[in-house]
């Protein structure tokens, strides 16, 4: 028996194939998706895409069977990045399902679901109800209608590329040489289409679609997966390097010296560009991004709004505030012009435009957006996360000039430094992020907080 509750996470479905996620679960999920989103009473169709993992086509086909068994139709866009699926959902105004496990290892797969217009489906906005219905269907079987729906196939790759290029026109920038590491993921599918014409020379690295990830995991958040790209940028004398995760919805940036540019700096740079086009707009940033982000937004006439970590919170606040842009420390970037969905490719186009519109190298251009020293995310294994966080709060809450808030975990801000510590939703871990005006202060605060997390083995992630 499949443990449905274990694979339905806060924002998506994720599990090992076939032990936790198989075609029977996908089929039941398709039927449940139609019922919970009341598809038959609305658009009548669901758009489906899938990534390059060996199990993805079969899982997508099973999900489509579940959808059509209810009488609803399916628009199958085939191989796609996650942001390409969001484009299809927005352009066609259909609810959608993307089959991918993003940056997870090869044995995993998953389903990211959205409502029409790429509006998110999370635990509090339908995903929990879908999970309950999947468990029922797996036990009792779904009720099929006499006349099933139809599946039609539609290729939207060119339309997706055209839409992005309409939003950021690179035709007037100086020629750039850019190394792109697709990690054998969907960037190898979308990058050639997006950069089919124009002044950007792409040097491809691992563009072959291969869900077994023979070169390295498609997880640029782990520094070891950037090593090949960093070396290739320097070797090729490139102006920039881009690394995409497995489903190509996140983009990490390497400068011409082979050094990573932080997602907070990219958030700041893109925010400044969007505010130049849309003066006075709101920009959303999660509470782990650098303090430089809200400073830059305010300095350029925008209104910074702080959010919890996670795409559903970012998208909700973007809708409530009509924000033009949102960014997270994890390299998820959200755009009002892209149905408030996250797209690493559009962020990459903004980065290339910012670089190509002047003559300085990337290391100089983006240094303007790096104002502080950050620890990166430090994960510590603990037995009782709540008790540990309470002890940390007791230690810092009474200090002069220190503010404490609980928007997401615990954030302590002393002006010249701040830290956030929050519990993982899925593992017995506390995640610590520290930022300060200089390295010595950051290290001191980091070590003070880690000392309160007694006996915890620590692994650092940038």
TrEMBL record:
Keyword set includes tRNA-binding: no
Domain Alpha-D-phosphohexomutase alpha/beta/alpha: 7-125, 159-258, 268-372
InterPro entries for this protein: A-D-PHexomutase_a/b/a-I, A-D-PHexomutase_a/b/a-I/II/III, A-D-PHexomutase_a/b/a-II, A-D-PHexomutase_a/b/a-III, A-D-PHexomutase_C, A-D-PHexomutase_C_sf, Alpha-D-phosphohexomutase_SF
GO terms for MF: metal ion binding; phosphomannomutase activity
Gene3D superfamilies found in the cross-reference section: Alpha-D-Glucose-1,6-Bisphosphate, subunit A, domain 3, Alpha-D-phosphohexomutase, C-terminal domain
GO BP term (any one): carbohydrate metabolic process
Bilayer-crossing regions: none
Pfam family, one: PGM_PMM_III
Top-rank EC class of the record's enzyme: isomerase
Cofactor(s), names only, from the UniProt record: Mg(2+)
Residues in Alpha-D-phosphohexomutase C-terminal domain copies: 377-451
The entry's keywords: Isomerase, Magnesium, Metal-binding, Phosphoprotein
Enzyme Commission code(s) on record: 5.4.2.8
Family: Belongs to the phosphohexose mutase family.
Name of the protein in its database record: Phosphomannomutase
The species this protein was found in: Kribbella flavida (strain DSM 17836 / JCM 10339 / NBRC 14399)
Phylogenetic classification of the source organism: Bacteria, Bacillati, Actinomycetota, Actinomycetes, Propionibacteriales
């Amino acid at each position: 028996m499949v443990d449905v509750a274990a694979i339905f996470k806060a924002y998506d479905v994720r599990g090992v194939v076939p032990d936790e996620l198989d075609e029977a679960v996908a089929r039941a999920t398709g039927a449940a998706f139609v019922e919970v989103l009341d598809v038959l009473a609305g658009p009548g169709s669901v758009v489906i895409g899938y990534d390059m993992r060996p199990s993805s086509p079969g899982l997508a086909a099973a999900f489509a069977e579940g959808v059509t068994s209810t009488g609803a139709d399916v628009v199958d866009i085939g191989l796609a990045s996650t942001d390409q699926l969001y484009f299809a959902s927005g352009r066609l105004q259909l609810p959608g399902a993307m089959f991918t496990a993003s940056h997870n290892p090869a044995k995993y797969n998953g389903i990211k679901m959205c409502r029409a217009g790429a509006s998110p489906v999370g635990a509090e906005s339908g995903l929990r109800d879908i999970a309950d219905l999947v468990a029922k269907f797996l036990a009792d079987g779904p009720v099929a209608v006499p006349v099933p729906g139809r599946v039609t196939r539609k290729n939207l790759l060119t339309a997706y590329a055209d839409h992005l290029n309409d939003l950021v026109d690179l035709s007037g920038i100086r020629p750039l040489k850019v190394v792109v590491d697709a990690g054998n993921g969907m960037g190898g599918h979308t990058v050639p289409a997006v950069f089919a014409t124009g002044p950007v020379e792409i040097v491809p690295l691992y563009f072959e679609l291969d869900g077994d990830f023979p070169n390295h995991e498609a997880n640029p958040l782990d520094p070891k997966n950037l090593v090949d790209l960093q070396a290739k940028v320097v070797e090729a004398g490139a102006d920039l390097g881009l690394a995409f995760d497995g489903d190509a919805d996140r983009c990490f940036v390497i400068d011409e010296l082979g050094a990573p540019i932080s997602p907070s700096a990219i958030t700041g740079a893109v925010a400044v560009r969007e505010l130049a086009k849309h003066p006075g707009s709101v920009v959303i940033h999660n509470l782990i991004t650098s303090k430089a982000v809200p400073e830059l937004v305010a300095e350029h006439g925008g209104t910074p709004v702080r959010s919890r970590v996670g795409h559903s919170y970012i998208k909700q606040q973007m809708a409530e505030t009509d924000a033009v842009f949102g960014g997270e420390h994890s390299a998820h970037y959200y755009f009002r012009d892209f149905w408030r969905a996250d797209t690493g490719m559009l962020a990459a186009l903004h980065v290339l435009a910012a670089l190509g519109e002047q003559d300085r190298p990337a290391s100089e251009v983006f240094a303007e957006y790096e104002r502080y020293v950050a620890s990166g995310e430090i994960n510590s294994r603990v037995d009782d996360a709540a008790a540990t966080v309470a002890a940390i709060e007791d230690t810092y809450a009474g200090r002069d000039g220190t503010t404490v808030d609980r928007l997401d975990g615990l954030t302590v801000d002393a002006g010249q430094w701040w830290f956030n510590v929050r519990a993982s939703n899925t593992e017995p871990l506390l995640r610590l992020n520290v930022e300060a005006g200089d390295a010595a202060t950051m290290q001191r605060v980091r070590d003070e907080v880690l000392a309160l997390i007694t006996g915890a083995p620590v692994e650092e992630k940038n």
